[in-house]
């Protein structure tokens, strides 16, 4: 990491499969409009319960990317 | 909440009327340019004091909205 | 407060009127089944947004009550 | 979420398979005695180590459910 | 805010009316002996329960004022 | 700790003798109605002051116990 | 606690005897110049080590007292 | 600060010179595309180590600016 | 856990497979030089992004082990 | 540090030069009216932005001093 | 404290007698292999419950010592 | 950062010159006995006051390094 400036945005990914997949969903979405994605940090893990099971994992992450 | 991705932004609303109104001001402003606003979370409540009274409540909130 | 033991439970009250009213709703509900309610502490304030306005304030509180 | 009141309880699920499964174990247990389970929040992830491997994931969660 | 030094004190205001009013009570009290009150920050909101209702909102705030 | 689920409750014990005794008071009370008490975690230590001395130590703890 | 305003100050008591005694030392000192001391909250517990033993417990507390 | 709404974004500035300079780098970058920058808050200070020295200070800040 | 003393160290495991595997990697590494590993606690979950996907999960954990 | 009691106050120093200088300004001011200043702790670093640069660093510190 | 560098390690002491004694146990153990122990900070207090009483207090502390 | 494991240690550097220099002192010391130092994170900034000025900045950092 050289003398760059990075922007950090916050996203919530959701997935009915796993908490890791919820992270992947959020990053995949970010990648459709942003370049230079560099790192993520998990802020919060939660989810909805449906019929006595985890319906969706919802993982709030920060995603950092380099400004050109 | 199905398999969507949400973005979370941070705003500070201010109001001379009440702390609840400061939240409303921030959300109303967000609604002028963003669709699908879904939830908010209060991050911090502070304010300025003028002549020995609360001059403005300033409430920092996170606002989540669904990405299309 | 003498040599008593207190139990602390966590509730989320919701209200379309105000964040204070959301606290009141939670305490009123607790009072229908518990006696000796003594104090509350606000843990988190959030809410849903509907049509660009606060739809419901949702306030998570802890409520303490004395065990007999 | 309309004008309801929710109760939040804290559980620790444990699983030798995965941290997601530890969440599922806790929610499944809660569902045997409680209705209207609505959401969960992960509070803490820890575990025991046995023979140089993760023996059990232990995930502390909050579970929210609507009071009738 | 130029090159000044500010002192920050902590107060708890209480009010049977509202949490905003508890903030106002604390600031009004501070204003009777201190000048140059500049800002406040909410640290904690809690209260006493009497007869199944909020008896008093108790809001702990920090108040900043400029030292001459 | 095998594949069990644990519930965690929050209690405040108070004691005029010591902060450790306040913990003991809370656990003793819990033991009168709950089995399988397993661990505790101190959340907060506070107390009342009477005549310029500690009147009561009040220790808020979480208590975990195994669900059958 | 009625409609009063309270001031909260921060003190560090130290004691070579015990952490509870460090709290007592701080409160006793506060009582020599302040009236209406009402409650304390433990903020931090630390200490110095001398010759491989606890030399002094140092407990930082907040002390609340009613303003007349 | 009157009845305005502010947006808060998160940036990471990096600098091989000093942690203050890392803050300046982030703010200078923000100023190339945003007007009305008003305040910053330091969220986290970290950095990379190269050859046993600080290679880059990396300071994560929040930057607030007024929405027109 | 009897009258023992435990040491707690902090490790970051990384894995391209899953966040659980990152925990396993860190514990396996610790086990090559330390005995009596007893428990772990997750401190932080983050990772690198490569080509719009999670490249590596990086999980910072504390690992506790008994001193002989 | 022997069996003394310390008071801790909170100050915000501001400086257009550096964050370290903001700390120095606050301590210098405290020294004009208080004796026995012993230590400080940084609580928060923030500042104002003017013309796309840091206008003032504002550092909130706690300052501890021995009570006679 | 002059221009030295200190290392900080984390230990958990346990004791069936008191939480203060758990701190002492951890420090005594550290003193058998380390010199120049200087200070400690309490990070967490918890414990096991056996037969409805505190079986062991477990206090996690940080211990700082000067590197030669 | 590939599939490696990193260890994180905690150090306190002190310096009479600046807070940045206190970080440098700690890292330089670590470099005399450890290889592969990779990153640092500031945990706490504090210091001693001597004659109404900052005597020493004391910065507690975490330092991460790759295990071979």
UniProtKB/TrEMBL annotation, chains A, B, C, D, E, F, G, H, I, J, K, L:
Record-linked SUPFAM superfamilies: Dodecin-like
Pfam entry (one): Dodecin
PANTHER family, sorted: CALCIUM DODECIN
Official protein name in the record: Flavin-binding protein dodecin
Native species: Thiohalophilus thiocyanatoxydans
């Amino acid at each position: 990491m050289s003398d760059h400036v990075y922007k950090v945005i916050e996203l919530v990914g959701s997935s009915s499969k796993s908490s890791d997949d919820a992270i992947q969903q959020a990053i995949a979405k970010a990648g459709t409009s942003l370049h230079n994605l560099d790192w993520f940090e998990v802020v919060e893990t939660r989810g909805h319960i449906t019929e006595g099971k985890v319906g969706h994992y919802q993982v709030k992450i920060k995603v950092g990317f380099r400004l050109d």
